[in-house]
Design a protein that fits this description.
Shape of chain A: globular
Number of helices of chain A: 10
Strand order of the largest sheet of chain A: 6-5-7
Helix content of chain C: 10-25%
Largest sheet of chain C: 6 strands, mixed
Oligomer: heterotrimer
Mean pLDDT of chain A: 93
Strand content of chain C: 35-45%
Mean pLDDT of chain C: 83
Order of helices and strands of chain A: HHHHEEHHHHEEEEHHE
Number of domains of chain A: 2
Structural class of chain C: alpha+beta
CATH topology of the largest domain in chain A: Cytochrome Bc1 Complex, Chain D, domain 2
CATH superfamily of chain C: SoxY domain
Radius of gyration of chain A: 20 Å
CATH topology of chain C: Immunoglobulin-like
CATH class of the largest domain in chain A: Mainly Alpha
Number of strands of chain C: 9
Distance between the termini of chain A: 62 Å
Largest sheet of chain A: 3 strands, mixed
Strand content of chain A: 5-15%
Low-confidence stretches of chain A: 15-19
Chains: A mainly alpha (277), B mainly beta (103), C alpha+beta (156)
Largest interface: B-C, 38 and 46 residues
Structural class of chain A: mainly alpha
Radius of gyration of chain C: 19 Å
CATH class of chain C: Mainly Beta
Chain lengths: 277, 103, 156
């Protein structure tokens, strides 16, 4: 009897351990199949279009705006900035693979030399600082324009975020995953509450977008902002909306979140910059 | 110029022009959150479209046209290769214009 | 002394930009097809907006005027609206949002080369009728559609 009990409890312990220590690959499979099941009429690639993949009414308006989207102005501005040399004569192209063209899908990545998650915006500002220029503000303005141009040149490229066999990379992934599933703020809500478990439901007059495909279309022109914003601008807003204190843009927390969040959209194509409400 | 993007396409004798203009379009209705005062209106008041130097359409806009405004119109009598010119003026006397070839 | 210099510099800058505008022909009055419809934009009622922009407030609803606008605006700040008409001799189009503080959003003067078609994006303060009014052969024709504007759930 005692032996049976101990075997059972050992089995339970093992089972619990297995669930808690699911690999990123297992998480990815569970995550993506969750949405495929929840929205059976949405083809996988279409999740990159967010709510418009699951709501025909708003899709019509979005398509009207996409006819000539406001972010096209930002892309032009970003292109000019991207190609304008720094004071020292070098350009952004010198900091990136392939001259910075068609590489959006490689971000964020875990830099094993530095032990850090590198996002595109971080790379842009590090490029500036390495060439004697002042860094740009993280959430909107010129950095979003440059990021928009770089995303635009990468449209169609498929995200394939890697998690190297390095405990620090796994820790960053787990930290991002934790943020996603953790309840926070006065409203005590997790990202997963709205964007996974209740995705497709209405919260007042907003349709909750599935997290699958969230980050493929950043930076994003929001009608609400009347302008372009980066991923971390949105994270900031989302944290504030559940009345939680936001984390610093491009700090460790949001970079970890972006790492997890983008990984979960592996297999989807870059379609930034995007237009949303 | 950088503030105006134009796409003009001719098909079956009709040219469709789409234009996107970079402008805050401050309506004059918004209040400054700090002072409580209304932020003064600063928006495009007129848009003019010309084809090969002749006026084709003009628009009067108020503060209820969206930020970074979009406008599309259609006209006859033009062909691919012709030039379309879009100009705008705002209530503060600023303005800009740009040209594009009809494709 | 500093204040005066600043004022002079400011004036010069304005004159400079006005001069450059005049050079491009943007400010020359004869380049404008119609004068700015100041009163129409100032009107706080639908009839005032229509008569101010098109000369009369009498309009007949017509199937020949097509108004495309969403049933529920995704965001009241950017509502795509398209007006088209199938009658001939359309010389002007006005787009009215009845629930806005100033109902006239815009008015368009079309030359004879123009097709009766205008598409733009408007701001709506709240749920209200969007009215497209078209002027042809001295008469006004219209199409109306109610567009709902809601408050979002994610803080706006």
């Amino acid at each position: 009897m005692k032996k049976l009990l101990s075997t059972l409890s050992l089995a339970t312990l093992l089972a619990v351990t297995c669930v808690v220590n699911a690999t990123p690959q297992q998480d990815l499979k569970e995550f993506q199949s969750f949405y495929m099941k929840r929205f059976p009429n949405t083809p996988f690639e279409d999740f990159a279009n967010g709510v418009y993949s699951i709501d025909p009414a708003s899709r019509g308006q979005w398509e009207d705006i996409e006819e000539f989207a406001p972010y096209e102005l930002n892309i032009s501005v970003g292109e000019t900035m991207f190609n304008t040399p720094f004071a020292n004569g070098k350009t952004y192209a010198s900091c990136f693979k392939n001259g910075g063209i068609g590489i959006r899908q490689n971000y964020p990545f875990f830099d094993t030399d530095r032990g850090e998650v590198i996002t595109l915006e971080l790379a842009i500002n590090e490029c500036r600082e390495a060439n004697g220029e002042k860094p740009l503000k993280w959430k909107k303005g010129p950095i979003a324009d440059i990021s928009a141009y770089m995303a635009y040149t990468s449209r169609g490229k498929v995200f394939d975020v890697k998690i190297p066999d390095d405990p620090r990379a796994l820790a960053a992934y787990e930290r991002g995953k934790k943020h996603f599933y953790q309840k926070r703020g006065q409203l005590n809500m997790a990202c997963a509450d709205c964007h996974k478990f209740y995705s497709g439901n209405m919260v007042r007059a907003d349709l909750l977008s599935p997290a699958l495909g969230h980050l493929t279309h950043f930076p994003v022109y929001r009608s609400k902002w009347g302008g372009l914003g980066t991923t971390h601008r949105r994270y900031d807003g989302c944290n504030k909306q559940v009345r939680a204190k936001p984390f610093p843009a491009q700090g460790e927390e949001y970079r970890a979140l972006e790492y997890f969040h983008t990984y979960m959209s592996n297999g989807l194509a870059v379609n930034g910059p995007g237009a949303r409400k | 110029m950088a503030s105006i993007k134009i796409r003009a396409k001719a098909q079956d004798g009709v040219t469709t022009v789409k234009t996107l203009i970079s402008h805050k379009m401050e309506s004059g209705q918004r209040k400054d959150s700090k002072t409580g005062e209304k932020i003064p209106a600063h928006h495009i008041t007129e848009v003019m479209a010309e084809h090969n130097g002749k006026q084709v359409m003009s628009a009067n806009w108020g503060g209820a046209i969206s930020q970074n405004p979009y406008l599309s119109f259609k006209f006859k009598g033009a062909a691919a290769g012709d030039t379309v010119k879009i100009s705008w003026v705002d209530n503060m006397g600023k303005g800009d214009s740009a040209e594009a070839q009809i494709k | 002394m500093n204040l005066l210099r600043r004022k002079l510099v400011k004036t010069a800058a304005f004159v400079g930009s006005a001069a450059s505008l005049v050079g491009t022909g943007v400010l020359l009055p004869q380049r404008v097809l119609g004068a700015y419809a100041t009163d129409a934009f100032a009107a706080r009622d639908v009839n005032g907006a229509i008569s101010g922009s098109l000369g009369s407030a009498e309009h007949s609803p017509s199937d020949s005027v097509k108004l495309k606008a969403p049933d529920i605006a995704e965001n009241g700040a950017v509502v795509p609206v398209t007006v088209s008409a199938s009658m001939s001799n359309v010389v002007a189009i006005s787009i009215i949002v009845a629930g806005n503080p100033g109902p006239l959003t815009s008015t368009y003067t079309l030359s004879s080369a123009c097709e009766p078609f205008i598409s733009t994006r408007v701001r709506m303060a709240k749920t209200s009728d969007v009215i497209a009014v078209v002027k042809a052969d001295g008469k006004l024709y219209s199409a109306t559609k109610e567009v709902k504007v809601t408050i979002g759930g994610c803080g706006g």
